[in-house]
Amino acid sequence: VLGAREIARKRSDVQRLARQASASRDAAFAHLAAGKRREGAWFKTASELKRRMERDYTELNISLKTLDTLYSGMPESVKRAGPLFGPNTLVSSGEFQAAAAQTQEELKRVALEAERARHLPLN
């Protein structure tokens, strides 16, 4: 039960952090696209936006890894809880494995996005 609650909480965190990372990336791209007068203040803002974007992607990555770990550990918990609650009352191990696989794909996608964003030219 605690694992399921933590998964729900972490899934909510991931959704919030994904929106935040996307907004940070969009703000950095918009600033770079509008950079007609690239002088000191422009570079300072661009650098701050890039730092914020990096931080947001790092937090998202950490949350996704935690979520993956939680999903991966749930099949064992289901095995232990099965005799106590009965097999029909628990989510199947296969569903947790599928969720873990989906989370791993999301981790790959986020890592690729973050890598592309890291290479934003500031000059």
Describe this structure in words.
- It is a single chain.
- The protein is an all-alpha fold.
- It contains 3 helices and no strands.
- The protein has helices at residues 2-33, 40-85, 93-118.
- Helix 2 packs antiparallel against helix 3.
- The longest helix is centred in the middle third of the chain and has 46 residues, at 40-85.
- It is rod-shaped and about 70 Å long.
- It starts with a helix and ends in a 5-residue tail after the last helix.
Structural class: mainly alpha
What are the secondary-structure elements, in order, as H or E?
Answer: HHH
So how many helices?
Answer: 3
Largest sheet: none
Radius of gyration based on Cα positions: 20 Å
Percent of residues in helical segments? over 70%
What low-confidence regions span 5 or more consecutive residues with pLDDT below 50?
A: none
Q: What is the 3D form?
A: rod-shaped
Oligomeric state of the chains present here: single chain
Number of strands: 0
| C-alpha termini separation | 52 Å
Mean pLDDT: 85
Strand content: under 5%
Question: How would you describe this structure in keywords?
Answer:
single chain; 123 residues; mainly alpha; 3 helices
Record the SSE blueprint.
Blueprint lengths: L1 H32 L6 H46 L7 H26 L5
Outline of this structure?
Helix 1 (2-33) packs antiparallel against helix 2 and helix 2 runs antiparallel to helix 3.
